[in-house]
Amino acid sequence: MNTGSDRASRVAQLVAVLLMFAFTLTIRVWGVSSEFLMLGDQIRDWSIASGPFTALPLVGPPTHFSGYTIGPAFYWILWAIRVSVGPWFDNLPHGGGVGQAVLQSGVDALLLAAVWHRTRSAWIALATVILLATASFDLSLAAVIWNPVVGATLAKLATALVLLEWPRRSAAALAVTAGIAWCAVHAYTGAIFVAVGIFVALLVDSVVAGDLRMAWRNLSIIAAVVALLQVPYVAHQVAHRFGDPAMGAVIGSVGRIASGTEPLQFARSWGAYASAFDFIQASPWQIPWAVWVLVACGGIVAIRYRHDPALLAVTLVPQVAAVIGYAFFLGGLEHYYYLSVMPAAVLTLLLGASALPSPRLARLVSIALCAVSLAIAPARILYATQLSKLPEYGALVDGSRRIAHFTEPMRAIRTVFTLPATSDPEYVYRILGGRLEPSSPWVGVIHVDGSVSYRKDE
Description:
A three-stranded mixed sheet has the order 1-2-3, covered by helices on one side. It has two domains: 3-384, no CATH class; 393-456, no CATH class. Strand 2 (442-446) and strand 3 form a beta hairpin. Helix 5 runs antiparallel to helix 6 (122-133), helix 9 (171-187) runs antiparallel to helix 10 and helix 15 (290-304) crosses helix 17. It has helices spanning 3-29, 32-35, 40-49, 73-84, 93-119, 122-133, 136-141, 147-163, 171-187, 192-208, 212-229, 231-239, 248-258, 266-282, 290-304, 309-326, 342-353, 359-384, 393-405, 427-431; strands at 412-415, 442-446, 452-456. The chain is mainly alpha-helical.
């Protein structure tokens, strides 16, 4: 009978979702056309996405440990971005960054609605997305073409769908959610810990209810989806006669630990997670004890939401799985390995901090948490401008455009400024239609302001 108030609530939620999309997209793409981080990985992947869909690899990008990710979903998404968004930016690589940011902001808007739906708290929902979107490290990478970012985005999308209870609607919805979770693993292997949590969430309700028939049905759907998505990888292996292993470093680490050659690395794994949580969520400040607050909140969440096992599956399981999983890995543990786990961590922190017996007090604390997230956002956004940028990119684009309009083929493109070793001063020029010919006497030289001078070698 509260039709009017229900309608007002839906309108308020829609407005909040649209504003959040606009806000997060703005801070993610601000300055991308002049400071896009165009390194070797971005050049390689954008070049691959610039070809026809049929020429895309059957596996994902190579890893720095050897091997590659276990499926091509990252390239599928990047190709779709190149086709739909790229032409608006002359198919230059920063167009891929914009498309990636649009995808992530759309997912954040959905996550806002999902947390709002699950917690019945607009304040917790707003705080969750603000803390995630304005985290300096995450924000600095948001418009950089990079598969860990896409993996984290897909993992966050699957989490949002679980929180919305969408997989409960039908077998098809469950299959789509499982597929998105596994595509996150395609994009970045570290998303496997979130995928485990998603799969548990898809199974746990029927198991707790004692409906084993439904549990087996859901398990069969998940297994079928994973098997179907691994067909490209199998085809790749067949083409290479099963001589091109995907995750050699991981398999080697697990094998050495399983054989007793090396001990489990629990202490190192825990330390790496604590450091990553502090760096990703606390920067530009350092709060080494923040992870212990997270642990306390995790305990509170486990008790307070014990009757919502699906929620526990997407908040606590990914974090525990990451600590256990990386204990089997002997390589170095970088902060970005944990990007996909951060939504679970932030949601755990907020749910635990606001889990109070008095509804009124819980609401006041939720409002305070939202206010704090807004208050620290400017400093976090400012710090992000100092990370993962290539300030010379704008000059490189302007200069390349001028040289391409010169119409004469160039023997080479040079810059008076120093680019990172893995970048390529000629890449943008080629995309813009410029021609490089070894026989040409002309060398185009790009200056820091984007102006150009020409050197003619006889």
